[in-house]
Design a protein that fits this description.
The chain is an alpha+beta fold and about 160 residues long. It has four helices and six strands; from the N terminus they run αααβββββαβ. The strands form two sheets. A four-stranded mixed beta sheet has the order 1-2-6-3, with helices on one face. Helix 1 crosses helix 4. The longest helix is centred in the last third of the chain and has 21 residues.
Length: about 160
């Protein structure tokens, strides 16, 4: 169980990690991870495969155990045990950018307090938030009754 004081510290922790989170998200946004022709080791194309590799690097950077499943899904675990008690679903693929962009959709920018870039809200941003939430739990030494697993796909779209 997380104590009330720890809950208050979540906000402070996330604030302290804001720049690192922005950099992680920007790195993911730079990868045009829409589906293209399948290749060896990249069932949904080079972009989605590159996004999974970057996601794995980020998860490992947070101290999570990682496993790439058939080059289509990343598992990033916190806690002990074979089966997760909680699975958090995310994906790193995006639909092609389409028309109407006035700036490069694969270069994240912050404008008027808004993050803009392909995948910021769906679903690269939530994936980064998930990794940092798990990192917070790890660093705080929160005792988990069951493991938590981030399940990160590259073909939701």
């Amino acid at each position: 169980m997380i104590e009330r004081e720890s809950v208050k510290s979540v906000g402070a922790y996330l604030e302290s990690q804001a720049e690192a989170m922005r950099q992680a998200l920007a790195a993911l946004i730079e990868i045009p991870s829409y589906r293209t022709q399948a290749e060896e080791g990249a069932p949904y194309g080079k972009g989605p495969a590159a996004a999974l590799q970057e996601g794995m690097r980020l998860a490992q950077e947070q101290g999570l155990r990682t496993r790439l499943v058939e080059n289509v899904m990343l598992e990033a675990d916190l806690g002990e045990g074979a089966e997760p008690g909680l699975g958090v679903l995310c994906h790193l693929d995006v639909v092609p950018e389409g028309n109407g962009w006035t700036e490069d959709p694969f270069k994240m920018e912050i404008r008027d307090g808004w993050m803009i870039g392909r995948g910021v809200a769906d679903d690269k941003g939530p994936m980064v938030a998930t990794l940092y939430a798990l990192k917070f739990l790890k660093e705080e030494g929160v005792s988990l009754r069951y493991p938590i697993r981030a399940l990160v796909g590259d073909n939701e779209e």
